[in-house]
Design goal:
By secondary structure, the protein is α/β, with parallel strands linked by helices. The chain has a domain of 192 residues: 3-Layer(aba) Sandwich (Rossmann fold), CATH 3.40.50.720. 44% of the residues lie in helices and 16% in strands. The chain has 9 helices and 13 strands. It has a 6-stranded parallel β-sheet with strand order 2-1-3-4-5-10, with helices on both faces. A 3-stranded mixed β-sheet has the order 11-8-13. Helix 7 packs across helix 9. It comes from Halomonas shengliensis. This is dTDP-4-dehydrorhamnose reductase. It holds the Pfam family RmlD_sub_bind.
Length: 295
Amino acid sequence: MKLLVLDAGHCLSLALAREANRRSDTELTIEEGLALDAERLAALAPDALVIPPLSRPIVAAPAEVTAHAEAVERCMEACREARIPLVWCVSDQLYEDGFAEPIDEHVIPRPRDESLRRLVATGDRIRAEHPHHLIVRLGPLFALEGSHAWLNELIDTLITGGEVRGEADVTCCPTSADAVAMALVGMLQQQQCGADAWGSYHLAGTEPVSVYTFVSVVRTQLATRLEGRGDHRPLGPIRALHHHHDHPLRRVLNCRRVLEAFGVHQKPWRLELGNMLDAWCRAHAEECTAGEEGA
C-alpha cells in the first residue's frame, strides 16, 4: 500500500512515518506542506492521501483556519479527479460546546464560531462530492516531536520552570499520535482489501479526563521518572483554569463505529503517555551523558 501524507513536520505525519518503517506492507511519501500538485498526485498514484489535523482550531487565527480548509478542498478536488481516496483528520474542537453524552459519528458538528464553521463546510463538501473518503475526528493529539504535538510543549515548559495551565472544566480524551497512525494504516489496509467502509469515524484515547488532570499527570509522572534517575530539579507549576463555570464542557468521542467496522480499539492514554515519557527520559539521559563526555 502506498500512502501520500501532507504536512511533513506534523506530529501525526512523523508518527505515520514511524509506523510505516515498522511494516513491510506500507510505503510512505511525505510532502512538506498542504499544497498538492495534481500532476505529482497522478505520478505518485497513492492508494490514499492523508491530511493531518489542524490542532486547536478554536484558538488558531481565522486566516490559518481558512487557509487549511481551502487547502483541504483543493486536495479533495484533485483526489476526486484522480479517483484517489482522501483521509482528512480533524480536531474534536469542532464540537465547540460539547455534549453531555459521548458524541456519535453521525453527529455533524454545528459550532457557533465562524472559523470552525468553515471547517465543517469543508467536511460537508467532502461528504457530498467525494464518496471515497475517511473523515477521522480525533481527541487532542499528544506526541514527543513534531508540530501540534502538545506533550513536547508541556515537557519543555515544565523543565524550564514555566507555568502550565489547563482547563479543569473541559473534559476530553487525549489521543496518542502513534496510536492514531497505527489505526489509520490498519483502516486503509482493510479498505485496500475491500472493506468499503468509507465515511466519518471517531478515534480517541480511553478514559475521559479534564485538561488540567492530564497536564497534572504529565508533571507527576515526569517528576517521578527524573527523581528515579537522580535528577531532582524543580518542575514548573500547574494552574487550573475555569472557563465554563456554569456548565462544564464535555468533548468525549464515541469510538464504537471504528471498532465495529475495522476492529480498532482505543488506546489507553495513560499507557501511551508513560511510554513516551520513558522514551523522553532515555533520550534526555543520553544527551546528558554525551554532553559530559564532550566536556
